[in-house]
Amino acid sequence: MKTKIFVDGSEGTTGLRIHERFQNRQDLEILTISPELRKDEMERKRLINASDITFLCLPDAAAKEAVAMVENENVKIIDTSTAHRTDREWAYGFPELSKEYKTKIQKGKRISVPGCHATGFISLLYPLITKGILPGDYPVSSFSLTGYSGGGKKMIAEYEDANRLAEYNAPREYALNQQHKHLKEMKYITGLSREPLFSPIVADYYSGMLVSVPFYLDMLKGVSSPEFVQELLTEYYKNELFVQVMPFGAEADKHGFLSGNSCSGWDGLKIYVTGNKERIVLSAHFDNLGKGASGAAIQCLNLMLGCKEEEGLVL
Ligand SMILES: NC(=O)C1=CN([C@@H]2O[C@H](COP(=O)(O)OP(=O)(O)OC[C@H]3O[C@@H](n4cnc5c(N)ncnc54)[C@H](OP(=O)(O)O)[C@@H]3O)[C@@H](O)[C@H]2O)C=CC1
Ligand SMILES: CC(=O)N[C@@H](CCC(=O)OP(=O)(O)O)C(=O)O
After folding, report:
1. Backbone phi and psi for residue 102, each to the nearest 5 degrees, phi listed first
2. Structure confidence at residue 92 as a pLDDT band (50, 70, 90)
3. What is the C-alpha to C-alpha distance for residues 17 and 11, in angstroms, rounded to an integer?
4. pLDDT classification of 229: cutoffs 50, 70, 90
5. Residue 49 class from Cβ within 10 Å (0-12 exposed, 13-18 middle, 19+ buried)?
6. Which of 93, 139, 261, 312 could bridge to 208 as Cys pair (CB 3.0-4.6 Å)?
7. In whole angstroms, what is the distance from residue 18 CA to residue 284 CA?
């Protein structure tokens, strides 16, 4: 029997990308909502409760409302919003972190997909803290480049407006109050003792992310060389299809640049370790709409269904 799927928020950026990935899936039956009824509570509630698995691709408040609509106890939820990422009752949808994370997703009824910036940040720090080389009280700072689709329909419309302001031509730093919405999950999942200093930058390209975290090597425990960090990350992710650790010092292009958009359209995540004997930078390179949202949501679905983890995804 086919698994019945409903996407609440199917007309949005994340919802549309999830739908695209259902093409050619014979194992799924997609329950659709008429576009004019997409905010109709009764119709949403009917479809949520008729589904086996519902994806929530909504703003936080609407995601919480949708969860409150569940009456059928067999319904499973995959939420792409920020609403439930630090809720202990929910599985955090990052299976590569550990066997426990993977099992909780496979067996779970409530899955919260990681935030896009948080995905990159956590992919870099979680292994270092788990393996004891990064002290939990390290004063971590991070900067992150993102394409404008990360801001959803509203930001896409602003960037693609023919009459937009000249400021949109340049990369723009935001969350200047140091209150970005991913800080909570960055701290909660990694176990850092405090929230990192985090500076996201949105630039004039559609999609793709580059999340970077610099470290002083002598402040990491038992680390004598940058190669050691690269080898530790390689070992940590060696069985993972979606995470690739690049050779030490590898650069994305022959001119020595890592550009924000070169993983656009791809559903995996590449880790770069660059720098020298004193200072290194770890960078996670992926697509905010791939491993940063819709791709990760589909990966969680595949794990829940017990099919190939990469089904319908681009690797
Ligand atoms: N874009 C990205 O890269 C990422 C997004 N996310 C998260 O995914 C979620 C969706 O984001 P995104 O797709 O970018 O946002 P969009 O704004 O592109 O889409 C949101 C959709 O939800 C609809 N919607 C809003 N309120 C309601 C409601 N009460 N009932 C039903 N539908 C509603 C909107 O309707 P309408 O069409 O009328 O606007 C829209 O179609 C958010 O929580 C976001 O933070 C997570 C990771 C990355
Ligand atoms: C460019 C831009 O505005 N990006 C969004 C991130 C989108 C995202 O990942 O939001 P979720 O927390 O719902 O996952 C931001 O930084 O707030």
Report:
1. -60, -45
2. very high
3. 10
4. very high
5. middle
6. 261
7. 22
Ligand nearest to the CA of 287: 1
Provide the 10 A C-beta neighbour count for residue 285: 27
Where does ligand 2 bind, in terms of residues with CB under 6 Å? 81-82, 115-116, 146, 150-151, 155, 181-182, 200, 202
**Contact in structure between 160 and 93 (CB atoms under 8 Å):** no
3-state secondary structure of 311: coil
Q: Are residues 65 and 169 in the same domain?
A: no
Q: pLDDT-derived band of residue 32, with 50, 70 and 90 as boundaries? A: very high
Question: Which residues have C-beta atoms less than 6 Å from ligand 1?
Answer: 9, 11-15, 38-39, 57-60, 62, 80-82, 115-116, 149-150, 152-154, 288-289, 292-293
Q: What CATH number has the domain bearing residue 125?
A: 3.30.360.10
What is the domain range of residue 240? 116-286
Q: Distance, CA 9 to ligand 1 centroid (Å)? A: 6
pLDDT tens by residue, 231-279: 999 999 999 999 999 999 887 777 889 999 999 999 999 999 999 999 9
Residues sharing a CB contact under 8 Å with residue 89, sequence separation 6 or more, in sequence order: 110
Same domain, 174 and 253: yes
Contact between 266 and 290 (Cβ < 8 Å):
yes
Ligand 1 centre and the CA of 171: distance in Å? Answer: 23
